Amino acid sequence: MRNRAPRGLLIALAANMALGLNSAFAKFAYRAGLDPNTLTMLRLGVAALVLWAIFLTRWRALIPIPRRALLGCIIMGAANFVAQISYYWGLTRINASIATLIFYLYPAVVILLLRLRGEAMTTRRLARLGVALIGVALLVDISGGSVDTIGVLLVFVTIFTYSLHLVIGQFVVRDVAARTVVLYVISTMALLATGVRLVMGGSPPPVTWAGWWPVLGIGLLGTVVARLAMFTAIKRVGSTQLALLGVVEPLMTVAVARGFLGETLTPMQWIGGGFVLASLLLVDLPQATG
Known about the structure:
It is a single chain. By secondary structure, the chain is mainly alpha-helical. The chain has one domain (4-287). The chain has 13 helices and no strands. The chain has helices at 4-20, 22-31, 36-57, 67-90, 96-103, 106-116, 123-140, 149-172, 178-200, 209-237, 239-245, 248-260, 267-281. It is globular and about 50 Å long. The protein starts with a helix and ends in a 9-residue tail after the last helix.
C-alpha cells in the first residue's frame, strides 16, 4: 500500500503523455493520405476491438450494464464522437500545438455547464475561466491573421461537446465501473464513426505502414492505454491529481509538434499557451470530483 500513491502518479503521468501524442499521430496520418473520417473510424474501430477482446478474456464480469447506464454511455459516446470528429477536422486547418492548447479551455466550459445546474461559481473558478479566455484570445492571435477561423471554430465545437460528455458522465453513470463506461463509450463512438464514414465517404484505408502506424498509435496508445490508465489513476490517486498532471498533455503535444512536425508558435501564442496552462493549475481542490 506504501507504493500505491507514487505508482498512481506515474500512471496518471503516463496517461496524460499518451493523450498528448494523439494530435501528432493525426498529423502523421494526414501526411500519409488519410482524412479525418477514415482516421476516426479506424482509430475507434481498433480501440473497440481491442477493448472487447480484453473484456471477453479478462474482465467478462464487467460487461453487464444496467439499461439506464447504457443509455448514459450512448449519449456520452455520441457527444464524445462529435468532439473527436470536429477536432480531427480542425487539425486539417490549424497546427496541432494551437489546437491542443485551445482545447484546454474545456475545463472552463465544464465549470459554466455545472453552473447552469446550480453549482456555485467560486472566486477560483472565475479566475480560472478568465485566465483561460485570455490565453485562448492570445493563441488565436486574430490581429495577426495567423490562425484559420474555421479550424478554431471546429475546436470550439470539440470543447463544448467534450465538456458536455464529461458533465453527463458525472451525473448519469457514476455507479458503473469505470472500465465498463470506457467499453461502451468507445463502442458507441466506433459505431458512429463507421456510420459517418459509410454515409459521407472518405479516403481509402492505408495500404502501407506509413499510414497504419499512426492509426495503431492513436488507437492503441492514445485511446485504449490512455483511457484505462486514466481511470486506474483516478482509482489510485483521485481525479484532482490527474487533473493537475493534465498540464503534461498539451506540453507533450507542443514538444512533439515542434520536434517532429516542424510547427512553431509566435511569441504572442507562447504567452497565450502559458495562460492556458496556468488556468489548468487553478484547479478547485476542495470541489474536484472528476
